[in-house]
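Figure S7 source data.
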Amino acid sequence: MANLQLTDGTPDVASDGVWLACIECGEAFAPFEAIRYTCDDCDGLLEARYADLPTWDDFEGEGVWRYSDALPFEVGVTLPEGHTPLHRVSRIEDEVGVDALRVKHEGMNPTGSFKDRGMTVGVRVAQEVGVDRLACASTGNTSAALAAYGARAGLETLVLLPAGKVAAGKVAQAALHGARILEVDGNFDSCLDIVQDLAHRGEAYLLNSLNPFRLEGQKTIGLEIMEEFRADYGDYPDRIVLPVGNAGNTAALYKCFRELVTAGAIEEGDVPELTGVQAEGSAPMVEAIEEGNDEIRRWPDVETIATAIRIGNPVNAPKALPGIRATGGTAVAVSDEEITDAQRSLAGEGVGVEPASAASIAGLRKLRGRGDVDDDEQVVCLTTGHLLKDPDAAATAGADPEPVPNDTDDVLAHLANR
Ligand code: F0G
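Tokens for the predicted F0G complex:
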């Protein structure tokens, strides 16, 4: 395994032991003095760094802010978020044939997706740097989360969505929480291009996962999984399987593990293999992993039922590809049909998720079927968004309602007929 230690010393620009570092050239920047999303020198992605990294005994409380010692603030703009269930799914576990399978259901966050973990930190940073307008491009969940956290903070919020390609529940959330919704005649990647332009012109504070502080909140998924899994099984999971869109979550989990290794909280051998899943119609990360490329080829035309991950240009790939490789993980593409089957299987165990989330189970199934996952592995699949986010997909995947007469005997007769 590659060396996962974070090694540089504390630079002069650090503020309260926090700074931003470029992942390409290593340049360090003050965290909150000026707004920047990428490196001034080389345009590389930035990540937050800390002079002191905590270990398990430093954490107390519940949810994202249990891990405040690993975050830039003591508390954020909170609803509150995190502390999501790590479900047992014994029927899928038996069917897939692994030693243990747990499902971390991030759909149980306040707005129904893992994005809340990033927003509680990101909107707190927006307050710190003193902006008055927040913005994001979104396939839906980021916009719902930003709208809610922006409302909580009393800040104006602008969301750019690909017209006609966002699930109904997510648009409804953004609308009711009071975001201005701009529907762009293009896909998510075009929305992100525009919102980045707006941010660079100083028109809005960008809260997509390009913003390094979003990923700080999201890394707490990894901290929760490691603590909870160890409490139940006495060990850490061998593998974490997750849906990939912009690859922010993959990047956040990798950072989580590198920080735990650097702090001495876990050994390098404890780091789970990061395993990314994309939809076949939208799989540039899988292509890069399979072909061994360091750079992503942008897919101009993307399509999948899993609209949350309908993304052709994953901007966090420079952080996420090394994460998949360094942890010994892999990436796999699944069909829309496989996604819907997995969504039904999860629902059959009481776990209601949106299509993108089910991609993790579909991917595990496929990898196990190919023999790329062994039968003695202990696996956690991430389900990233709630079933109610996409009621149309749920209704299509589920059973049709049966019309019956307004009479008990007729209802019984109808039931007996089947
Ligand atoms: N699952 C769901 C339900 C999502 O909404 C997203 C991303 C992902 C997985 C992929 O996560 O981007 O970190 O790889 N949704 C973003 C949005 C793009 O705008 O809501 P990622």
